Automatic annotation (TrEMBL):
<protein>
    <recommendedName>
        <fullName>HTH lysR-type domain-containing protein</fullName>
    </recommendedName>
</protein>
<dbReference type="Pfam" id="PF03466">
    <property type="entry name" value="LysR_substrate"/>
</dbReference>
<comment type="similarity">
    <text>Belongs to the LysR transcriptional regulatory family.</text>
</comment>
<feature type="domain" description="HTH lysR-type">
    <location>
        <begin position="1"/>
        <end position="57"/>
    </location>
</feature>
<keyword id="KW-0238">DNA-binding</keyword>
<dbReference type="GO" id="GO:0000976">
    <property type="term" value="F:transcription cis-regulatory region binding"/>
</dbReference>
<keyword id="KW-0804">Transcription</keyword>
<dbReference type="InterPro" id="IPR036388">
    <property type="entry name" value="WH-like_DNA-bd_sf"/>
</dbReference>
<keyword id="KW-0805">Transcription regulation</keyword>
<dbReference type="InterPro" id="IPR036390">
    <property type="entry name" value="WH_DNA-bd_sf"/>
</dbReference>
<dbReference type="InterPro" id="IPR000847">
    <property type="entry name" value="LysR_HTH_N"/>
</dbReference>
<dbReference type="GO" id="GO:0003700">
    <property type="term" value="F:DNA-binding transcription factor activity"/>
</dbReference>
<dbReference type="Pfam" id="PF00126">
    <property type="entry name" value="HTH_1"/>
</dbReference>
<dbReference type="InterPro" id="IPR005119">
    <property type="entry name" value="LysR_subst-bd"/>
</dbReference>
C-alpha cells in the first residue's frame, strides 16, 4: 500500500494525473490502476477528476494528512533500523530561522560534524511555521524555532539598530524580513503602524541596507555584536526593546527521533544557555 499512498499524494500535490505519472515514472494507466487499488482498499472514492485536473474528495482530504504521517513513520523506521544495523552512519535534517542558521548553529554543527564525520546533514533555513509543517510531514527531524512549545534552548534579545550616520533614527522606516518570520511578527506586535521600506530574505541583506542608512532594523543582538563593537551600527534605545524571544528545539517526539538526530538534540541541550 505504500506505493499507492505515494501515488495518491503525488496527484494531490501536483493536481494532475499527468504530472504525477511523470514524477512517479509511471504511465497514466498504471497510475490510475494504483489509485483504483487504493480506493478499493478504503472502499471510497478518493479523487475527483475534472477539466482543471484532479482534487481529493472529502474522503481523500481526510486521508491526506494520515497518508503523509504513515509514509513519514515508515521512513523514520527505515532510517532507525539502517543506523542501528550499521548500514550507514545516519542522517540529520534540521530546520531553523535565518538568525539561528547564521549565528547560533554554526559552532554547534561544526562540533557535531567533527565528532560524527560520516553523518549526512541537511540544514534548511525556513520560518517557524514552515519548520513545524515539515516536522509534521516528516521531512525534517528537528527544528530550532521561536515557539511557545518545545525544549527551551536559549533566549534571544532583539534590539533596534541603525547606521551611526543616520539622522533622526526615531523617524526612520524599517528594514526587515518578510511576513511569516518571527522577527517581522514581533516588529508588528511591538511597533504597530511602523513604516516598512524593505522586506528582505536574509539577515546579511538587512544589516547591509541598515549600514547604508536606508532605515533602522529590529534584529537579534547576537547578529550585530561585531557591527556594534566596531561602530558600523549603533543601538537605538526604545522603551519596547530589548524584546526577548525563546528559541526552542522542536521535534515529533523522542521516540521518533533517528539515532543521529537524537545525538544532535543531546548536543544542543548540553550547550543551551537560557538567560534569566
Amino acid at each position: 500500500m505504500l506505493d499507492e499512498l505515494k501515488h495518491f499524494l503525488l496527484i494531490v500535490d501536483h493536481g494532475t494525473f499527468t504530472e504525477a505519472a511523470r514524477r512517479a515514472h509511471l504511465s497514466q494507466p498504471a497510475l490510475t490502476a494504483s489509485v483504483h487499488r487504493l480506493e478499493g482498499w478504503f472502499g471510497a472514492r478518493l479523487l475527483s477528476r475534472g477539466p482543471g485536473g484532479a482534487a481529493p474528495t472529502a474522503a481523500g482530504a481526510a486521508l491526506v494528512p494520515r497518508a503523509r504521517a504513515a509514509l513519514a513513520a515508515v521512513e523514520d523506521g527505515r532510517r532507525a533500523v539502517a543506523e542501528i544495523e550499521g548500514l550507514h552512519a545516519g542522517e540529520v535534517r534540521l530546520g531553523a530561522g535565518a538568525t539561528a542558521c547564521t549565528y547560533f548553529l554554526p559552532p554547534v554543527l561544526a562540533k557535531f560534524r567533527a565528532k560524527h564525520p560520516a553523518v549526512r546533514f541537511l540544514l534548511r533555513e525556513a520560518t517557524a511555521d514552515e519548520v513545524l509543517s515539515a516536522l509534521h510531514e516528516g521531512t525534517l527531524d528537528l527544528g530550532l524555532v521561536v515557539s511557545d512549545e518545545g525544549e527551551l534552548w536559549r533566549e534571544d534579545e532583539l534590539i533596534l539598530v541603525a547606521s551611526p550616520a543616520l539622522a533622526s533614527p526615531e523617524r526612520a522606516p524599517f528594514v526587515t524580513f518578510g511576513r511569516g518570520s518571527s522577527t517581522r511578527t514581533l516588529l508588528e506586535q511591538h511597533f504597530p503602524g511602523a513604516q516598512v521600506v524593505m522586506e528582505l530574505g536574509s539577515i546579511a541583506s538587512v544589516k547591509g541596507n541598515v549600514r547604508a542608512g536606508i532605515g533602522i532594523a529590529l534584529v537579534s543582538r547576537q547578529a550585530v555584536e561585531h557591527d556594534l563593537s566596531v561602530g558600523r551600527l549603533v543601538e537605538v534605545p526604545h522603551p519596547a526593546t530589548p524584546i526577548v524571544r525563546p528559541l526552542r528545539i522542536v521535534h515529533r517526539g523522542l521516540d521518533r527521533l533517528p539515532p543521529a538526530a537524537a545525538r544532535l538534540r543531546a548536543m544542543l541541550l548540553a550547550r543551551r544557555q537560557p538567560s534569566g
